[in-house]
Amino acid sequence: MMCETPLVRVARSDEGSVVARLIAALLSELDGAPVDPVAVGKSAETVLALPSVTAFLAFVGDEAVGVLVLNECAAIYAGGVFGEISELYVAPEWRSAGVARLLVQVAQGFGQERGWKRLEVGAPPQPGWSRTLAFYRREGFEEVGPRLRRVL
């Protein structure tokens, strides 16, 4: 790992393949199996075209080393509009170097500029991903319970 400070910026419309590559690595790591990069690329293209979705990339030099995908959501319990981090990934060689923290800080600033009252995130299953949960707690997130899903 180098000592260079990452630069975080909004992903450009022509960087969908960069976002998809990082998300494919995240999904492969979470699932423990390779994922179809073509399917991830198509999904990234569709999702990143939505006006409610913003992706941030962390670069060191010309290399993208991290990604955070942020969704604008709304709920009565949240007092209106809020942000949800749907994906956050940092390349293994850049973990514990402040990249994820920087991505979260940029997302917080983005939300504050829009008047959001909160950011939410779903942590991966515990206890296998306890470092991820510990990271979010250090960043000021509170654990409010499990997230459930039903595939349609």
UniProtKB/TrEMBL annotation:
Organism domain of life: Bacteria
Alphabetized GO MF terms: acyltransferase activity, transferring groups other than amino-acyl groups
Protein name: Acetyltransferase (GNAT) family protein
PROSITE patterns linked: GNAT
Domain N-acetyltransferase per the UniProt entry, residue ranges: 6-152
Key words of the record: Acyltransferase, Transferase
